[in-house]
């Protein structure tokens, strides 16, 4: 077996063969099952897109209605999951709460039957249906309130905003939120999807797979960036402060949140759509104080870092949309997770279809053939530089 060269972060190393989504980072193209993201955002819904990603094709009217009915029926949480949430500290991050609840689902559906299509279908429906309810329930409970029950008369996105804000959303707000979910649903082998695939490859249950992925998405270099962008815009405070801020980041070689991408070397096509959605919300509900700062930021970063392929990614404008929808900043990444469950499940199913457990190799850089030094003979102070490790010379 040939060992390929070590690539930090596996950059450019194919980890699988997949037919779920396609990205061209130079042209700024994203397709789900071959359909351009711009078309899905305009013409589809999140649940229809989830069906496309997971089952491999657009559903018939009957299939879509049956899928939507199944999801409505499974939105409610077991009371024990809600009781578990009551023990969570209010100050805890909602992504940690979500990861705990996703894993807890495995306790209720512990009988693994990965070769049974009904088991697969049930897991897909339960996770897509219950994750939004978990996110909304934690939000209300950490404020000391009882969570509200899902409403079967509302569609997927309207119901989430209703459970979160305890009032029916404006139809435009619900539609724009649904488009955001479509935009965030899938993105080839990103870190959290890779995490899901590695976990899936051991043939554990799908709830553990999603819990792994949620934990991975939470990091600020990945899904956690949307929350960091708002913090950054607040910290900058004025348009005049933008360029000094960008210069300081460059000097300190620190990453500017919401910019850059391992694959896109142009503006993320999802950022372009999210920017337009934000402007639609501003037209109807009023301007956002940070939008001008964001526009100045995009221009300044393009001037200074565009030559390195650093442009806005999906996380740069999404937070401005979510703020207008009344979503708290620390729920931005859980909202990303609600959408990405569709992509994670699609890759879980695909992995099971032709599974081989992930077990990469390494380039070993440590020492060999060391002698065990009895405690009494070891130096009093452990100083790596001073201590010479006795080695057996072959
Ligand atoms: C998501 O993979 C996906 O598809 C992810 C995602 C999805 O849908 O699943 O698209 C969602 O995670 C989007 C990314 C959200 N993260 C952020 O916005 C955090 C800020 N971005 C960076 O941390 C960074 O751009 C990454 C992590 C996104 C990508 O990093 P890479 O590919 O590992 O790039 P790198 O760190 O090797 O940087 C290459 C060069 C470096 O400069 P040099 O040392 O070569 O001179 O580009 C610079 C970096 O300093 N650089 C940045 C930068 N990102 C890269 N400089 C300033 N600000 C940045 N944001």
Task: Describe the overall structure.
This protein has 394 residues and is an all-alpha fold. It has two domains: 8-223 and 322-353, Citrate Synthase, domain 1, CATH 1.10.580.10; 226-320, Cytochrome P450-Terp, domain 2 (Cytochrome p450-Terp, domain 2, Orthogonal Bundle). 54% of the residues lie in helices and 3% in strands. It has helices spanning 37-43, 46-55, 61-73, 79-86, 94-108, 117-141, 156-165, 171-184, 191-200, 206-217, 225-236, 242-252, 269-285, 291-305, 314-324, 332-353; strands at 21-24, 29-32, 35-36. A three-stranded antiparallel beta sheet has the order 1-2-3. Strand 2 and strand 3 (35-36) form a beta hairpin. Helix 1 (37-43) packs antiparallel against helix 8 and helix 9 runs antiparallel to helix 10 (206-217). The longest helix has 25 residues, at 117-141. The protein is globular and about 75 Å long. The mean pLDDT is 95. It binds s-citryldethia Coenzyme A (SDX). S-citryldethia Coenzyme A binds next to helix 15.
CATH hierarchy: architecture of the largest domain: Orthogonal Bundle
> What overall geometry do the principal axes of the alpha carbons give?
globular
Bound molecules: s-citryldethia Coenzyme A
- Counting structural domains, the number is 2
